[in-house]
Amino acid sequence: MMNDTLQQLSVTLRRTVDDSYPIFIGDGLFSRLGSLLRDRGLPKRVALVSDTSVFALHGPALRDALAAAGFAVAVEAVFPAGEEHKTRETKAWIEDRLLETKLGRDTWVAALGGGVVGDMAGYTAATYLRGIPFVQFPTTLLAMVDSSVGGKTGLDTPHGKNLIGAFWQPRAVIADLRMLATLPPVQVQAGLAEVIKHAVIADPEFFDYLQAVWPQVARLDPAVMGKIVHRNCAIKAGVVEKDERESDLRKILNFGHTLGHALETAADYRLLHGTCVAIGMRYEAELAAALGLLAASDVKRIQALLDQAGFPAVDDVEVSAAQLVELTKSDKKARGGHVEYVFPKQIGAMAQGERGYGIRVGDEQALPLLERIRGR
Amino acid sequence: MMNDTLQQLSVTLRRTVDDSYPIFIGDGLFSRLGSLLRDRGLPKRVALVSDTSVFALHGPALRDALAAAGFAVAVEAVFPAGEEHKTRETKAWIEDRLLETKLGRDTWVAALGGGVVGDMAGYTAATYLRGIPFVQFPTTLLAMVDSSVGGKTGLDTPHGKNLIGAFWQPRAVIADLRMLATLPPVQVQAGLAEVIKHAVIADPEFFDYLQAVWPQVARLDPAVMGKIVHRNCAIKAGVVEKDERESDLRKILNFGHTLGHALETAADYRLLHGTCVAIGMRYEAELAAALGLLAASDVKRIQALLDQAGFPAVDDVEVSAAQLVELTKSDKKARGGHVEYVFPKQIGAMAQGERGYGIRVGDEQALPLLERIRGR
To answer: Annotated catalytic, B178?
Structure first.
């Protein structure tokens, strides 16, 4: 034995990283890409990544706008629309399109689409030649208010959603409200679930505002939608800025998601994510009240706003309450068999337990309540 | 047009990141993993990733050592040995092994093997649940002196090597010199190419030391090998610390690699990377002299040390000089059709041109020289 020969060396990699980026929100932003993207350190060549549905509507316009702004679209990688294409195979296909075109590090990725495109394009950018810049052009309300802030990218595997991926921040987000006009109403509604969630977890005035302006929201009034997107990004950015990697504070963004994800899985993704989150918020608000954390009057106000947005009162998924509770345990966020929820203590503020924002709930508490609400 | 509605919001993500980590070098380190890995913030569960050749030799010993140190090896993901398995398919297979075992963020990856294992295990760790910790247990000299420092991880595609990947730093590197005893001599030699490279680019005393101790190197004397690994890691760490992402300084690590990579490609990976780099250094040293950057006496000393290490004087690859020069242009580092080299100005110091360390060389300079040296 020569244990006495032990030598130690330290690789010192302490540095300041600045991944800050601007989100631009407005109506008709494609015509001013040159000024919006200036000073973002972007090279000249662009790989435009989109899905077939979005590309048909907005692809040529973005291609022309990029050209007018002085960028060269070297390749267009357009994959079939749908969450079922958020796979390793799609990532490899996009990468091969870029590699065939011999694109080097002097390239950035333009992600034109909703959450799936943002995830796939962002994750591809994160790992292409070990990382190249990307810019998001979100085309859905959900992508504008939620997935464009936080830097989460990734893909689904048969074992679950978003299990493989990277944290990779965009150099800029261009949220052109004009995109919302081409969105199916059900997709607008899906985005509103996250909007309401952000109001509940962090901003009581914004909650009041949403109640007041609902008629304008329903007809996608650009001024109101601009304000909503802006306020939402600000709320989420506030959380993410304090806690870029997932630890405690960021958990509050999961309100409605513990039961929401369970519903989504139980429905085999037949229901939209936003619908599941909305119903998840209804159940979790009731659970918060049952645990003595949230006043009944606040539950009522949350339910009323979700009613206004047209979300169903209960799910119609063919599973028992026991099966639903069981599904919450396969969640990434389940720790050692315990299911963690986050709960509002009032509209605009979240409750903290002894472990921080994550609050463990036993089956004996969740089960009877869910059986009562769902009637099965 | 409602361009006047433009709103801007900034997501501020400025933070200090500390990715520093220790490299432990010694003979018989497995018996003290408990103390070496303490305070590294590692969770209890481990996924042990290795290849079939290395696992057969050292897998059970590491498994036992991890258990003795209080860690639980939850899964062993052992893939077939060889660079041809550094693929997307292998990464997906490793991920699926971890996912099947339902491993969460309370898991770290132990990479037991050479460069291919380090790359695959590191890249998998970088993207599993968007990133979990990993520790490298390098088993080859090349992995100890080169790939364990720098945080580069990745995989090969049919379009080229290391084109997809991530920068992901290990939490620690455990370089147990005992591993070298089981290494085929040709693999030891391959590692020595990078050792000599590090001496040439940064440390004249170390170059002298290598000449002096060569007999001990040849019989893998633990004290000498320990000193060599330590000095090498220190040289590479010095470069990487100043320049973690690839920009200028880090280029000096590419000495011998521009023509080396071209040879590797021309030989269709029949030649070891280390052999190609060694011959690449011979050619690039001659090129440096021809360009008036390096004294003929220094070229002679470099050639002599490479002779001592048993590297061939010229390659035996069946390509013309013109084809070889052409292949340097498909290098990741070729910028806009221009091929960039780095050259020593003396043993232990690199030349800087008007663009920094990267120096452009035209075909009319490289071609006649290569034809003369290679005799074809």
So the answer is: no
